[in-house]
Amino acid sequence: MKISPIYFQNPQKGKNISYTYNSENKNRNVKSHLTQNNEFVLLNQYLPQINFTGSETYNKVIQYFDKKIVGFSKEKDNLAKHFTEPFIESFKNTSIYIPNGVMLFGPENRLVECFANTTREIAYQTAGNKIFDLSNETNENFILKVRDILEQAKNYYNETGKKSIIYLNNIENFLGMTYNQAKRLTDFNYSVKDIEFLKSSNNVNNIEYFKSLLDNCASPPNSGGYGSTFLFTSNFPHLIHPDFRKGKIDKFEIPRPQDNENANILIENITRCKDSLINIKDYPDCLARKLNILEDLNKKNFTDNDYNEINKICKTDEQLGAFNYDDLYKIALTSCLKSINPKNSISGKEVLYYELIHTPRSFTPKMIIRQNKISNLVNNKQNMFQILCGKEELGIITNKEQLLLDELKIKRKNDLVSLTEKEKTGNLNDFEKDYLEELRTYEE
Questions:
Q1: Would you say residue 32 has pLDDT above 60?
Q2: SS3 label, residue 216
Q3: How many degrees, rounded to 5, is the angle at CA 281 between CA 275 and CA 285?
Q4: For the chain, which terminus, N or C, has the lower number of CB atoms within 10 Å?
Q5: Residues of the chain with CATH 3.40.50.300
Q6: If 0-12 CB within 10 Å is exposed, 13-18 middle and 19+ buried, where does residue 77 land?
Q7: How many CB atoms lie within 10 A of CB 426?
Q8: What spatial distance separates the first Cα and last Cα of the chain, rounded to whole Å?
Q9: Residue 282: pLDDT band by 50, 70, 90 thresholds?
Q10: Are strands 130-133 and 228-234 parallel, antiparallel or unpaired?
Q11: Helix 399-425 vs helix 430-443: angle between axes, to the nearest 10 degrees?
Q12: Which residue from 116, 238, 230, 240 is spatially nearest to 172, judged by alpha carbons?
């Protein structure tokens, strides 16, 4: 049962290539720096605790991310600093901490997978780390396949000193809770589809195996590990067994586009779409004459006021919901295509603003509420009121905090009364319904 690693394509040459780490002496391969018992001899003495921001590898990682993904600078920086770069640098310094498991999660499947795929490509093309993919495996053969891959990864580490990434999409399919566990272990309002999934889940063997495996699998083989990190992705992390959510796995959230970065993502997408259209040859004459209108959509022609106005229009709305990442790309592409339509007689920016106002949003208010709940659950977040109530119950609340808590209690009581009255008229929006449900839960 042999499982081959993934080989990424070199987009420039169109063929598979491999990478070998070379020291400052470029004539010597890494294998010449392994002792007889395969202990790696450091070529450079790094401090165990390294500030990765600003290093050469960090810059390469961020540049790679920027080519693949528009926006999300905070998420790219966080993933680069705390996983991607340390993972690459661990080849030079075995004392650098590497997590046994990493999970990328968020509401948009394509976006989360893009972060995961880019991370794998960076590790392979920058440092020649081996990549395995378990995503298409069945539950019946899962443990056997994992064990086979771990042995291959251990052998690869012993030969090269390089660690492997084992990728698993939709982790909830393999490490999900049962319905009884969900009721007992997690306080969450599961949907009908969630309950159907939980009732069909039976991952007991997988869970018990991974509990022990994720304690040491990133360690070198001579320390009892396999020199490997599991890279998980999920759009339904609330269905994963809490033992993994709460400590076995390092978590990186890839949220929907934030309100303050919508304009940047949109305009960067416009730039890419515009450049692609301009570079197309053999346009019909009627379209070729219209290409000059795209100049209006040049990034340099967007002012600070334009950015502010676009962010204002794109902002999450209690009635309309929010744009997702694909929505912003579609708006950019549609705006460019409509701008060069022979029947169009208005500027590119006017077309853009029309599309912004009239394009339906993929995330409804109900979906946003649910996303926020899932995010809080997975990140173990509590709101200020919950935190202060907990402190009051334990008797460790300060006078200043007590004053704030008393103010919040009064406000929440007033909100409960006003929303209950509004409920009778049937005019509550989704955000208000969710808030009213929370208020009543605490009253009980």
A1: no
A2: coil
A3: 105
A4: C
A5: 30-253
A6: middle
A7: 6
A8: 56
A9: low
A10: unpaired
A11: 120
A12: 240
Instruction: Determine contact, residues 375/255, Cβ cutoff 8 Å.
Output: yes
d(CA 133, CA 248): 20
Distance set, CA 434 to CA 235, 423, 428, 430, 444 (Å): 21, 12, 10, 6, 16
Would you state the structure tokens that stand for residue 397, as one six-digit string? 């609340």
Q: 139: how many CB neighbours lie within 10 A of its CB?
A: 13
Cα 306 from chain centroid (whole Å): 28
Distance (Å, whole) CA 141 – CA 55: 42
Whole-prediction pTM: 0.78
Nearest to 171 by CA among 126, 227, 210: 210
Q: For residue 32, what are its two tokens?
A: 């010449």
Strand ranges, E, within 58-115: 101-105
Q: What is the pLDDT of residues 97-117, one digit of tens each?
A: 899 999 999 999 999 999 999
Range 188-214 average pLDDT: 91
Architecture of domain 30-253: 3-Layer(aba) Sandwich (3.40)
Give per-residue pLDDT as tens, 291-333. Answer: 777 888 999 999 999 999 999 999 999 889 999 999 999 999 9
Coil vs helix vs strand at 347: coil
How far is the CA of 8 from the CAs of 26, 70, 123, 264, in angstroms?
A: 24, 21, 11, 29
DSSP H stretches of helix in 214-261: 242-243
- The residues, any chain, with a CB within 8 Å of residue 235's CB and separated by 6 or more, are 105, 106, 107, 108, 109, 112, 170
98 neighbors 229 (Cβ within 8 angstroms): yes
DSSP H or E run through 319: none
